[in-house]
Amino acid sequence: MNNSFLLALSTLVGTIIGGGIFGVPYVVAKSGFVPAIFYFLVLGGAVMLLHLFFGEIALRTKEKARLIGYSKKYLGNTAGAFATFSTIFGIAGSLLAYTILGGNFLFLMLGSLLPFSETTFALLFWLVLSFFIVRGIQLIVKAEFFMNIALFLTIGIIFFFAAPHVKFSQFILFDSSNLFLPYGVILFALAGWAAIPEIADFFKKDHEKKQLDNLIVWASLITASLYFLFSLFVVGVSGSGTTPDALQGLEPFLGKGIVVLGAFFGLVAIAASFLVLGNYLKNSLRYDFKLPYLPSAAIAIFTPVILFLLGLREFIVVLGIVGVVIGIVEGTLIVLLYKKAKAKGERIPEYSLRIPRVLLYLVGVVLVGGALAELYFQYAR
């Protein structure tokens, strides 16, 4: 693997492994081990296909665009309006979740040393990362590479200390009352298609772009495996006491030091995702709405902090709702875009998938059916 491939892989993995990883053990503990395996296999496969679809869409289109621009170009203004809503809603919700967690993790790490509240730490987290969003993707990619080295080293340390405490008796096999709870959170955690056009832009040479499909497959397998292992270790230690942020429930078993270390891992992970998603929103406004650079950057930067200051701070609820929205809207749009780009693409892509039509419909059923089921069983009843 060359340096460009590793940097791009780091960016995509770093985008996917965000704040959602901390919500996954909680929903696994609530729904049970058997449903968790089902969700990881089915949603993991569906999301990998969506990533590959989006990569081919980007490679079949000459001009730079994002989901909004692709939707307008291939599907019309109505689809563009849905994409606009989903993009802004989804990324703003994601950035809000990362801002909340960033403040929590900084408080866990530094609260005993500095006289700052979680709110102040959250604002500091937002301020520092906003600087990188203004600077752009090349700096972000290089910063993420080093952040992800620290991330995986820290995960390894947490796994090492947690392993002796794991008891499989802590798992429940199945809880029908929480059967649909994992859908939105796991889908949110696995989705990383926002970074695909950024990766395509990062690759400057044709032979590099030919690696995009392999990169997507590797990134999808790495992240899904890591989520599953992380859930096994956390739930295996804390069981029914697993908390929505995953870390607090570990403290009685692993001690304060490991929780602080986990907070560092969390901070690195969500910082990486915050950077790429913020940059994606900025570039969507630039390329799809033709806004100047500074207004685009300002909207991307200030939207999450405004929501935060308005008092929207329920982490699990944010993850679940954002996951449902992107499942219904963005997932469906990507499937439709893939079909249209196959027929009306402007250039020969560096890779071209051969997907049976029935599989496209199946992906759509998984996305829409799962989202509607969670909305009904978790929120509407």
Quick rundown:
Helices cover 78% and strands 0% of the residues. The model has no long low-confidence stretch (mean pLDDT 85).
Describe the structure.
- The chain has 16 helices and no strands.
- The chain is mainly alpha-helical.
SSE blueprint and pairings:
Layout: H1 3-16, H2 20-31, H3 33-60, H4 67-75, H5 77-110, H6 118-135, H7 137-162, H8 182-190, H9 196-202, H10 206-209, H11 212-238, H12 251-254, H13 256-289, H14 293-309, H15 315-344, H16 357-380
Annotation keywords:
single chain; 381 residues
Rg, rounded, reads 20 Å
Q: What string, H for helix and E for strand, traces the elements in order?
A: HHHHHHHHHHHHHHHH
Name the beta content range: under 5%
Percent helix among the residues?
over 70%
For the biggest sheet, the summary is: none
Number of helices: 16
Label the overall shape: globular
Roughly what is the average pLDDT, rounded to an integer?
Answer: 85
- Distance N to C terminus: 50 Å
The parts where pLDDT drops under 50 for at least 5 residues are none
Structural class: mainly alpha
How many beta-strand elements?
A: 0
Instruction: State the oligomer.
Output: single chain
